TrEMBL record:
SUPFAM superfamilies: His-Me finger endonucleases (SSF54060)
InterPro entries in UniProt: His-Me_finger_sf (IPR044925), Homing_endonuclease_His-Me (IPR044930)
Gene3D superfamilies for the chain: Homing Intron 3 (I-ppo) Encoded Endonuclease, Chain A (3.90.75.10)
GO molecular function: endonuclease activity
Name listed for the protein in its UniProt record: Uncharacterized protein
Length: 122
């Protein structure tokens, strides 16, 4: 390896899965989305009390993180958080998710507390 490059274990895992198990990962992600219930606001919720977790290739994570990263080909590291634009933690609609930093995620929560969700922006 030349120069300084560092990928944390999360990034490495996504890199391997996307490169070698992409097909399987994508069908798993689509199956999770299809099994969800669509709400009036367009969210797709999992039939679980909290954010559903998914286990794949020896790793466990929230389903929304798995779905977002696999469907968008994103190698997310530990500092990358998948944000809910709809502020619904149970939502796994890929269109309601986006990548951000931990700081932005906190800002989202403050914005939501102050303004609520503007579904016109989704
Ligand atoms: Zn949503």
């Amino acid at each position: 390896m030349t120069g300084f490059s560092y990928a944390d274990a999360s990034q490495q895992w996504f890199a391997v899965v996307l490169a070698d198990h992409g097909e399987e990962a994508r069908s798993r992600a689509f199956a999770l989305v299809e099994a969800g219930d669509t709400t009036e606001s367009g969210c797709i919720e999992t039939p679980t009390q909290d954010a559903r977790r998914v286990r794949f290739m020896g790793r466990q994570m929230p389903a929304y993180r798995f779905i977002f990263c696999i469907l968008n080909g994103v190698e997310a590291g530990y500092d990358d958080v998948v944000r809910h634009r709809c502020n619904n933690k149970r939502c796994i609609n890929p269109l309601h998710l986006e990548l951000g930093s931990r700081g932005e995620n906190l800002q989202d929560e403050r914005d939501f507390a102050a303004n609520g969700v503007d579904f016109g922006l989704l």
